[in-house]
# Entry
Amino acid sequence: MTKISKERRESRLIRHNRVRKKIHGTAERPRLSLYRSNRHIVLQLIDDDLGVTIASASSVEPSLRPSGGGTVDAAKVLGKVVAERARAAGISKVVFDRGGYLYHGRVAAVAEAAREAGLEF
# Structure
């Protein structure tokens, strides 16, 4: 890992910790946590009171792999999928945790697709 990439990672983790101080998921309103790498995107609905993942979606899943991995189009598909899985679990409201990433590109695409599919946040 180069010096610049290490500094970027540390900066993202600082931003993530700052956001996590204010965001807390409950059973009624779980936290929609997002992690993105250069190739993939992972979404989880987390109940922080119990420390349990309620539902998840990832671009690594075989059924979602043809959608393109880490692209904006794949992010839109993942947003819809995680919203459908949340609705199946009886959840309509969530708290969005962008994971320290800027609300732009793939992160914004996930959020907009989840909202269009019926999640409120």
Notes: The domain at 3-116 is CATH 3.30.420.100 (Nucleotidyltransferase; domain 5). The longest strand covers residues 41-47.
